[in-house]
Design brief:
Length: 384
């Protein structure tokens, strides 16, 4: 009996082996249109959705002046309708696994993003790690269409920019799964990076700088690049970047490279009210000295550290107050911190957290440490 079972096992395995040599949903590359990224706008006064796709062109492109990609726009009432209708224009099914970027127009973002991201998050062929952006131009399409002048696949460039954003920290890095998670989480509002076109000497380039602020799924306002950096300090999301520091006469004179930064949030109850304390410790390197006076008692390393800390404290407080008063959106995750530290208190204020957030008292304490001065510890001194 045991011998018969072994024989059957061998026969069944032999029959299954040919099926294991390929992928069950394998499809020829020539039968697919590979999507690199998309832009989503409103189509005129009709209120329809306009979807613009940037597709990798592995056959030289429909237009020989646009090597490596092709663009296609179509409008409809729903995302799923548009995606399916595009098959009739391309003759191929759209392949989404290589998509890197989704750009929303501000009009779409202010109207609410749920209706345009639900399909993307639900479909089994899309990826959850695609980067999202809100266009600071009139439309999202014109940003994606910059590839017509750069002759590069714009969506892939944007993905690389976000991977390198740690060196500037002037915009948040947000993937679609993270955005949706914030929509579904109490005590932490969603944000997205702003993208625009920067023109100089007749040359246009994409620029990611600033933050779109959301209440639920609707965009309610913006932060510029400097405010965004301060916001990221409050969120403990700083991984690099530069701190500019004035001298004793309020003249920009020093550049500190951020090597490491940690922010700890401590909620506590004071006289029955929640009070938050932010402790920020930032390790830096002195990478630029724009003065020939050298270091004196007035311009010692300790004095530079102190001015850098004071300036950072004011900037972080300023952006917190702005968001509290102007947008009433807890983009810092303070509500989650209260939930973790004061669960009983949180259960009583959870439903009215937006109102509680606007009245929240926040203390910020900063410490900037210059732990290196690059290759030299002195300033350049001019000869007589």
């Amino acid at each position: 009996m045991r011998g018969f079972r072994k024989l059957m096992f061998v026969l069944i395995s032999a029959l299954l082996l040919p099926g294991l040599s390929g992928c069950w949903n394998y499809a020829e590359v020539d039968d697919m249109s590979i999507v690199a990224g998309v832009a989503i706008d409103k189509d005129g006064d009709e209120g329809k959705i306009q979807l613009t796709t940037e597709m990798v062109d592995n056959k030289g492109g429909l237009d020989q002046n646009q090597a490596g990609f092709k663009m296609l726009s179509l409008s409809g009432d729903t995302m799923f309708e548009i995606v399916r209708d595009m098959i009739s224009l391309t003759g191929k099914k759209l392949f989404w696994s290589h998509a890197k970027a989704i750009i929303f127009s501000e009009e779409i973002a202010r109207d609410g993003l749920t209706k345009v991201i639900d399909w993307y998050s639900r479909d089994t062929e899309t990826r959850s790690d695609v980067f999202i952006f809100v266009s600071d131009e009139k439309t999202a399409r014109e940003v994606l269409n910059l590839n017509s002048t750069t002759e590069a696949i714009m969506s892939f460039e944007l993905a690389q920019m976000m991977r390198d954003e740690q060196f500037t920290n002037k915009a948040p890095v947000v993937e679609i799964w993270d955005f949706i998670d914030k929509l579904e989480t109490s005590g932490n509002n969603a944000i997205a990076p702003l993208i625009s076109l920067h023109e100089k000497n007749g040359q246009k380039n994409e620029r990611v700088d600033g933050t779109a602020v959301f209440v639920k799924d609707k965009m309610v306002g913006k932060l510029d690049g400097e405010e965004t950096q301060s916001m990221l300090f409050a969120k403990d999301k700083i991984r690099g970047g530069v701190l500019e520091v004035n001298n004793a006469h309020e003249v920009p004179s020093y550049s500190l490279e951020i090597l490491e930064s940690r922010t700890k949030v401590k909620p506590k109850l004071v006289d029955g009210r929640i009070r938050l304390q932010l402790n920020i410790v930032t390790h830096t390197g002195l990478d630029e000295v724009m003065t020939s006076n050298g270091f004196s008692e007035e311009e010692s390393i300790k004095a530079i550290e102190q001015r850098a800390g004071e300036a950072l404290e004011q900037k972080v407080l300023s952006v917190i107050h702005k968001v509290q008063e102007k947008y009433q959106a807890d983009i810092f995750g303070f509500g989650e911190a209260v939930h973790r530290s004061l669960p009983k208190t949180w259960s009583g204020i959870k439903k009215k957290w937006p109102e509680e957030f606007t009245r929240l008292e926040v203390d910020v304490h900063t410490k900037v440490i210059i732990q290196s001065t690059a290759k030299t510890s002195r300033a350049i001194k001019l000869g007589d």
